[in-house]
């Protein structure tokens, strides 16, 4: 039987058409056995069966006056009909999912029997793939359970059948089978749902269904008839009682040695035998005219057939054949349910209630005052499947990228970008607005929405700015989890970044101190007498034009080219990183130990979120793309001026391994129980400053058509938003339907000439008392940022983040000036004090603006020279008169042009506190010349990286950092002082 492509991929370590897995050997349909390790399996190649049918002739079953025969055209027709309907069902499902094919897994302990072969044959006839796991008859209960658990977690398996000796079918084993894969209907939960009548949530045990099919052939109904079920009180017997009673029959259940059995036999119109009859029990007491159906593994003794008063007895093969067909029908039904679950589902979201207090408590008190939903429940509410999340504790989970393939045909929702005016050092609340807007849309307007935020860096959390979970009644919870470590993505970036840094310096040292031969022997060692290249070494050989795979065949010249990267230490641009504001690492000297043999050089540390690996994480669209980007990262040049990459150093695969979990967005929730993705966290002043493409794309599919995804760009619109459009949108192929521009009266007063705002000190009275003149003058910055948004052709809604000291006159003035400047709308937002209810007006404005036609365009063409792209940003976005390149910057640009990197977009590293390069220049400075101190290349991320003025890529700690207030209660383990 031909295997589908999807399963070749899932089990590609085994050859197509191979064998089943066996602890005692790998077995095909024949009897040949050979050893195989436990824990590996493939598909069983099943031969097709002829159209003759598999039933055997046998005695009849009769109710009333009708008689059919097993093996007769009537019996074969019933099985053929089930097979044909199942085949048609699969064909129908494959119109939606062309690669779909249901898979049946059989776990066997002990020897084969006719039922096992019958299951395989009918599975083949229908067109199922079969995984057959053979365990020895002496295997333990735990070994069986372990196999079941593996199959439970395999999304490619749709049905699971246990072919075990009676002694191995314990309650523990049976109830290990996942409900949706329990096609034999043996679990307590399945039986319970059958009894309760949840028609779409259970499987009828195939043998019970077969008995009912046989009974259904009678001319007369079961209404009022007595059916005695003799055997065990297991799932089969319970199912039969339930099904018979639903047909109006009277079902009596008994065990073989029950004292009441003879009397029950005398009452019975039908007797169903579900287990082997003990030799000492006679059927002579059966009432004349009663029918007997035998489901047990052995044929009822000839003694019962010889009773003249008893109708002929049904052979167990009759029931087996029909049950096998119905079992496969259950597998197909399970597959259908799986396919249905793959489709987009409307949300059934239960939002959490807020009870805002006045005065508003601290952020951490508000966060702890709300009980978040279990994250797996939230995931289910928004349409995520159980195998698409990886739960981290109770309140956060990673989301697997397979979701994008499952929902690829679902139309995207509306895309909203939240940016801001030039902020004060305190920040103006973009994250708070993003959460408040999402809460308003989902919890109050009942519109699907997702907020996509960046992961906070430990640097500002313990430094001066504090956390980034939002604030007040518009925040992500638990805020401690959000602000501290989260799921470890930044740590993974730090580890990967510093592994590459270590590889660079180690390679420089080893090349300088070893001969070609010694290097080659160490880079391509002989292991157990065998010498071979790794896959990444073969790729390097191919880049060098050496198409050889035998290490012994390289010439001395080829060995020299292969082993010598010949890195020029003065050109190394790759820095080490740490996620802490540590100013004394801005310039360091490394290699001073005697063991480094004089290979000393100056370098520096950047903050972890400025790493190119963080930028790659935010811009990649999947694992394969991320691996390619990691390999392309340029760390410096060789002495001939050619770029040296992570691929050349052989470290790409290791970097990908360190990043394999970080690439998955983290699911959390807002205070009102609406979904939030947290992923990536590059600073907008020293990187591109946006949350990840993957988080946005997944969210757009989950909200569906008519829903909204609210994503945040870092700092002011002049840097975060500009990079969103020119870099992120180019990478993702998406563009937003509307820009929400966040402003505060506080920031506008600062731009209007108010005194300096300093973190950790009280605000001057100009910011706490009404001052319309400062507000009006400061709106120049707001108008400029609106103009910047319109350079890209996207409608703008201004969100005025209201503080308790703002007056109505100040609020009204800002909103009117914003509208006069071209904003689609401008509204006051009170989410900080009221939650989503305080941003309903903003949500309505965003809905209106998102339905406007946009005229999206990029600011510059990629074919423009690097210098002209820098100049365009400086003049059109910042308002500069011109740019000035340092000699080093010009030399770097010349080098990058020569190396073929001139067509990349530009990511400016510039202060976020001013439109200019000078933080003290507020409002809308003009006429300045923008100095470009240095230029770096982030080739893996895909941009050129100019450093403006004195901009540092390692922030420093202030005199009084936030960590003075952060503490842990050793008894309760509660964190204090985060906010």
From TrEMBL:
Region Disordered, residue ranges: 51-75
Swiss-Prot/TrEMBL keywords: Acetylation, ATP-binding, Ligase, Mitochondrion, Nucleotide-binding, One-carbon metabolism, Phosphoprotein, Transit peptide
BP-aspect Gene Ontology terms: 10-formyltetrahydrofolate biosynthetic process; formate metabolic process; tetrahydrofolate interconversion
CDD domains xref list: FTHFS
Source taxon at top rank: Eukaryota
Record's subcellular location: Mitochondrion
Main location: mitochondrion
A GO term from the CC aspect: cytosol
Catalytic class of the enzyme: ligase
Catalytic activity: (6S)-5,6,7,8-tetrahydrofolate + formate + ATP = (6R)-10-formyltetrahydrofolate + ADP + phosphate
Coiled-coil features, chain-numbered ranges: none
Gene3D superfamilies, per the entry: 1.10.8.770, Formyltetrahydrofolate synthetase, domain 3 (3.10.410.10), Leucine Dehydrogenase, chain A, domain 1 (3.40.50.10860), NAD(P)-binding Rossmann-like Domain (3.40.50.720), P-loop containing nucleotide triphosphate hydrolases (3.40.50.300)
GO molecular function terms attached to this record: ATP binding; formate-tetrahydrofolate ligase activity; methylenetetrahydrofolate dehydrogenase (NADP+) activity
Subunit structure: Homodimer.
Name of the featured protein: Monofunctional C1-tetrahydrofolate synthase, mitochondrial
Species in which this protein is naturally found: Lepisosteus oculatus (Spotted gar)
